[in-house]
Amino acid sequence: MKKYIREHLHGLWVLYLAFYLPWFFWLEGHVITFHDMATDFDRSIPFCEYFIIPYFLWFVYVTVVWLYYFFYDKKEFYRFIGLLYIGMTISLTICTFFHNGVTLRIDVDKDRNFFTWAIFQLHAVDTSANVFPSIHICNTLVCCVSLFRYKEFKGKVLFQTGNIILAILICLSTVFLKQHSIMDIGGAIVLYIILHMIFYHWGPKILARRKNKTAQ
């Protein structure tokens, strides 16, 4: 039992949520006035309540990937949570100093169907503020690209097809539910690209140079 605990101490990184969640909900409760990130293009996108399914699947997606790496690949787990947590922290930092949001939401009839009821519940706990850059989008890209690059899943066409389709549907859900704007998505993509370069390219090259210097 002690050996198992020692081998899985990296699970303590779940405690990041004890730092992230209070910060997130503090912003949700204090940011009342904000810069509107909505564009005319966003307003032209039709509302579709059925996208609440892939929107909520995001929580399952991120959790399952987190758990998979936690149990099966500690090295990849650290890279994954590094991308995930740094992206989330940067996003909240931006929202702390640059109050932003969207004025796109529409009132939904919670008694119309299951989907509108679910959206009503979402609106009750998640305001339309603190949207740029979108954590939903950034974390989706982290999961999708990580799984696409992971050695154990290379060549598994069906799995990767499902991975990409799910990621696309999650991204689309943010605009079809009027949760985010195109600007939020663009900001998340830029943020992810920077993090991707650090963790997959610049970081490994720097570590390799240091290792070579040490070996000489």
Tally of domains = 1
- Assembly annotation: single chain
Give the tally of β-strands. Answer: 2
Which series of helices and strands comes N to C? Answer: HHEHHHEHHHH
Indicate the radius of gyration in whole angstroms: 19 Å
How far the N terminus sits from the C terminus, by CA atoms, comes to: 41 Å
> What proportion strand?
under 5%
Largest sheet, strands/sense/barrel:
2 strands, parallel
**Integer average pLDDT:** 93
**Which structural class do the helices and strands define?**
mainly alpha
Helix content: over 70%
A few lines on this structure:
This protein is 70% helix and 2% strand. The protein is mostly helical and 216 residues long. Strands 1-2 form a two-stranded parallel sheet.
Task: Chart the SSEs and their pairings.
Layout: H1 2-7, H2 16-30, E1 35-36, H3 40-44, H4 52-72, H5 74-97, E2 100-101, H6 114-125, H7 135-149, H8 157-176, H9 182-215
Parallel strand pairs: 1-2
What characteristics describe this protein?
two-stranded parallel sheet, mainly alpha, 216 residues, globular
